[in-house]
Amino acid sequence: MSAECIFCKIINKELDADIVYEDDQVVAFKDINPAAPVHILIVPRKHIPTLLDLEKEDAELMGRLHLVANEIARAFKLDKKGYRLVINTGPDAGQIVFHLHLHLLGGRPLLQTIAKGRGV
Ligand code: AMP
Ligand code: ZN
Predict the structure, then answer these.
(1) The pTM of the whole model exceeds 0.85
(2) Percent of the chain whose pLDDT exceeds 90
(3) Is 101 a catalytic residue?
(4) What domains appear along the chain, each with residue ranges and CATH number?
(5) Ligand 1: does its nearest atom lie under 6 Å from the Cβ of 95?
(6) Which of 39, 99, 101, 103 is catalytic?
(7) Is 94 in the pocket of ligand 1 (CB under 6 A)?
(8) What is the distance between the alpha carbons of residues 46 and 60, in angstroms, rounded to a whole number?
C-alpha cells in the first residue's frame, strides 16, 4: 500500500471505481478514459510501481493477472474476437500511474501496431 497511489485507494475502496472483478490478490476496474469499447485495468493488490520492480516472488502473481484477463475477456464476450493486453513501463511508454496494471482492450479491431495511447 502506498498512501498517495490512486490505484491503492481504489483497491482499498477509498476511491470509487467501476470494479468488474476482485479476489484476494487481484482487482480489475473500468478505465476512466477508455480507449476501446472494453478497457479494463487489471491490478495486483500488492503495490508494485512498474514491471521493472518485479521480484522473483511475484512470478505467480503475474500469471494470475493473465488468468484473470482471460476470465474478464470471457465475461465481456471477447473470447471469440480476441483482445489486447498492454503494460506501460516508465516514461517512454507513457506510464502515468505507478502501480503495475494490465490494460485489457477489446470490443473493436485494434490497430496492428504496438503503439500505446488513444490510437491503440
Ligand atoms: P498508464 O499510462 O498505463 O499508467 O495508464 C493509466 C490508466 O489509468 C489511464 O488509461 C487512465 O485513464 C487510467 N486511470 C487513471 N485514473 C483512473 C481512475 N481513477 N479510475 C480508472 N482509471 C483511471
Ligand atoms: Zn498502489
Answers:
(1) yes
(2) 89
(3) yes
(4) 6-102 (3.30.428.10)
(5) yes
(6) 101
(7) yes
(8) 13
Please tell me the distance between residue 78's alpha carbon and the centre of ligand 2 in angstroms: 28
Nearest partner of 39 among 110, 114, 113, judged by Cα: 110
End-to-end CA distance of the chain: 30
Tell me if 93 sits within 8 A of 71, measured CB to CB: no
Report pLDDT digits (tens) over 29-87: 999 999 999 999 999 999 999 999 999 999 999 999 999 999 999 999 999 999 999 99
CA 47 – ligand 2 centroid, Å: 4
**Residues 56-81: b if buried by 16+ CB within 10 A, e if exposed:** eebeebeeebeebbebbbeebebeee
Beta bridge partner(s), residue 64? none
β partners of residue 103: 41, 86
